[in-house]
Design goal:
heterodimer; A: 330 residues; alpha+beta; Phosphoribosyl-aminoimidazole Synthetase, Chain A, domain 2; seven-stranded mixed β-sheet; four-stranded mixed β-sheet; 13 strands; 24% strand; globular; B: 346 residues; Rossmann fold; five-stranded parallel β-sheet
């Protein structure tokens, strides 16, 4: 078995081989092993959170991760920022005929490691194969189920709340931009792709925690523009408090990107009451993934939309952009 | 921040209450800093900072791009040029969409290397830009280019276009922020003509917001005193005489020509082409390139924006159908284009 064949998606013997030899080797949880049509799962609470996401990142391998790691982290993070403990994951593959098995194996390792790190079980899956040139190597869909500990609806957000970010922004977007073939710049820069549940779970106990979101496509600016859109409130961000790596700043300047609009895969925006912001910051900073956490702004009723207070004290509107600066980022 | 506040206070105190002051920058990187720092929001109402012709990609004639596309379709030709050029739209599409054999480079030295490692191919270097990119192109010619490297020179001269802008009463420029990188090559003395002949204060500035603000202060001071001269707040990089070595090389290999600016038209003595002596390296001559008539892009006002007669927001295509992903006009393509910068900064 060196390459994916059309038969690997037929549901017949080849599919069975692929599942037994590869998928179960890496992803074999107790729930997955029976290989029934549906997995049986247990939830301790009656209230569950569920989310789904498809991953079409190009290229499939990038500094700091691969599409498999991304597919687990992305869905785990969607649950974690919703105030849930991620528990179960489904993984669906769409593979292109001829896809090298050794690449698939690397990607499965990425899935297994991230699942282990975040404590989720992969309980069900699916594989389809399409003809050569009908997809770009592979696409992955993951669906996640988590147990709700603290529901965090956007209605919670009110005037005077503080806005925090758990670390440097734009790392993922810049890392992907760099490995796309059209650029000849080299830099020692990796995607921030990581499961955030371990970082964020301790915050569920804090009363003032109001809302969280992982700023993936469209970046921090787009997420905050959505907050403003839905709440009708304004968000003011202070440029000098927004953590951006020196190399990310340099490269995005050169390539004409704004880190505030670049994707992140291991960061969360947190909105919390004024009183609890420092406490949250202290907790975040103790975790390896939260060392560069920072309070970057606040919620206000003085205007609608998102405004950036620049380093020189100027003001710049952070509008929602009509389109991604960088497509197929996740 | 305190220092910045003081400079801004100074600017407010220097701008008259009864008169509008219009200062133009002629450099995409300056416009980038101005827009991204929100500088305009800190300026007094009577002070306008206008983006001018600071984007070389934007003014590159459509004819040259179409010729480049056609060259890339010749079997043994590889067209090489800067990244932004690949996406500039023309009536025949962009190089990226319609071209065949092309590669992106970030410096002329890469063109040289590609030529050396592809001896069986003809490498055409589509060399565009103001003085900043002209100098290294002259540099590779001086180093000695292999027989299979040809230059399609579409270089433009900054001082010439600035002089055209001064003469245009419709624009009404009170002062220039002179481009830092171009000044490093041509020297701050190259701008003396503006103060001496036209009484327009012209100040060389760098790319940090504070430095640009200081440049604006200097212009305003000169306007207040009524004595225009060439100023320089970027002295660490820009010398009065500039880079004389680079100037000599440009002079040796290139000569001034009457050239077309996209959306603007022919401007006498505003471009640089290879001297006859080096015609064996000149892609225009070797491949016998013919001029293609420029087609107007319906609704696009890039030409007007480049001349500082309109802001990007005045274009009815801006942000609606013309975006960085689907640019209708050249100013939306390049990171140095006013429309591209304004799209990103609201």
């Amino acid at each position: 078995m060196k390459k994916i064949e059309i038969g690997h998606g037929s549901g017949g013997r080849l599919t069975r081989d692929l599942i037994q030899k590869l998928f179960l080797k890496y992803l074999g949880s107790e729930e997955l092993k029976p290989l029934e049509d549906a997995a049986y799962i247990n939830l301790r609470h009656h209230h569950a959170a569920m989310t789904t996401d498809s991953y079409v990142v190009r290229p499939l391998f990038f500094p700091g991760g691969n599409i498999g790691k991304l597919a687990v982290c992305g869905t785990v993070n969607d649950l974690a920022v919703s105030g849930a403990v991620p528990r179960y994951l489904s993984v669906g593959f769409i593979l292109e005929e001829g896809f090298p098995i050794e690449h698939l194996e690397e990607i499965l390792k990425g899935i297994a490691e991230s699942a282990k790190q975040s404590g989720v079980h992969i309980v069900t899956g699916d594989t389809k194969v399409v003809e050569k040139d009908k997809c770009d190597g592979m696409y992955i869909n993951t669906t996640g189920i988590g147990e709700i500990v603290k529901p965090l609806p956007l209605d919670n957000v009110s005037v005077g709340d503080m806005v925090l970010i758990t670390g440097t922004i734009g790392d993922h977007g810049t890392a992907i931009a760099l490995v796309r073939d059209e650029f000849t710049i080299t830099a020692n820069l990796a995607s921030d792709c990581a499961p955030l549940n371990d970082l964020l779970q301790p915050l569920f106990e804090i009363d003032g925690l109001k809302w969280m979101r992982d700023p993936t496509r469209g970046g921090v600016a787009t997420v905050l523009a959505e907050v403003s859109d839905v709440t009708g409130l304004g968000v003011e961000i202070f440029e000098e408090n927004v953590p951006v790596r020196e190399d990310v700043r340099f490269i995005s300047d050169m390539l004409g990107y704004d880190p505030l609009y670049l994707a992140n895969e291991g960061k969360a925006i947190i909105i919390a009451s004024h009183e609890s912001a420092n406490k949250i910051l202290t907790i975040l900073k103790k975790h390896p993934l939260g060392q560069n956490a920072s309070v970057i702004g606040h919620v206000t009723s003085k205007f609608k939309g998102v405004r950036l207070r620049t380093k020189i004290g100027g003001e710049r509107l952070l509008d929602m952009l009509e389109e991604d600066m960088l497509p197929r980022i996740c | 921040m305190d220092k910045t506040n003081n400079i801004i206070k100074l600017i407010h105190s220097l701008v008259p209450h009864d008169k509008k002051i219009r200062i133009m920058n002629v450099c995409g990187s300056h416009e980038h800093t101005i827009a991204f720092s929100g500088m305009r929001s800190l300026m007094p109402e009577n002070l306008e900072i206008i983006p001018g012709p600071g984007c070389p990609v934007c003014v590159c004639p459509e004819s040259d791009i179409i010729n480049a596309i056609n060259l890339s379709k010749i079997d043994d030709v590889i067209l090489v040029t800067y990244g932004d050029m690949l996406r500039v739209p023309t009536q025949k599409g962009s190089i990226r969409a319609e071209g065949k054999n092309f590669r992106m480079i970030t410096s002329p030295f890469e063109a040289l290397n590609i030529a050396k490692s592809n001896p069986g191919k003809k490498i055409v270097f589509f060399s565009i830009g103001f003085e900043t990119t002209t100098a290294p192109t002259a540099g590779i010619l001086e180093m000695g280019v292999p027989d299979n490297l040809f230059i399609l020179s579409s270089h433009r001269l900054t001082p010439t276009i600035m002089e055209i802008l001064i003469k245009d009463a419709e624009i009404g420029i009170d002062g220039f922020i002179a481009p830092g990188h171009v000044s490093a090559i041509v020297g701050s003395n190259a701008w003396n003509v503006f103060s001496e002949k036209y009484g327009i204060p012209t100040v060389v500035a760098g790319f940090e917001a504070d430095n640009l603000l200081l440049g604006i202060v200097e212009i305003l001071r000169q306007l207040k005193s009524g004595k225009a001269q060439t100023g320089n707040v970027y002295k660490g990089v820009v010398k009065p005489e500039g880079n004389t070595q680079a100037q000599k090389l440009m002079e040796k290999y290139l000569e001034v020509a009457n050239v077309n600016w996209r959306g603007i038209g022919y401007i006498p003595g505003s471009g640089l082409e290879l001297r006859d002596k080096y015609s064996s390296r000149d892609a225009r001559k070797v491949f016998e390139l013919k001029e293609v008539k420029e087609a107007k892009i319906p609704g696009c006002i890039c030409g007007t924006i480049i001349l500082g007669k309109a802001y990007p927001s005045a274009c009815k295509l801006f942000k609606k159908v013309c975006t960085p992903k689907t640019p209708k006009g050249p100013c939306m393509v390049s990171f140095e284009g006013a429309c591209n910068i304004w799209y990103k900064t609201g």
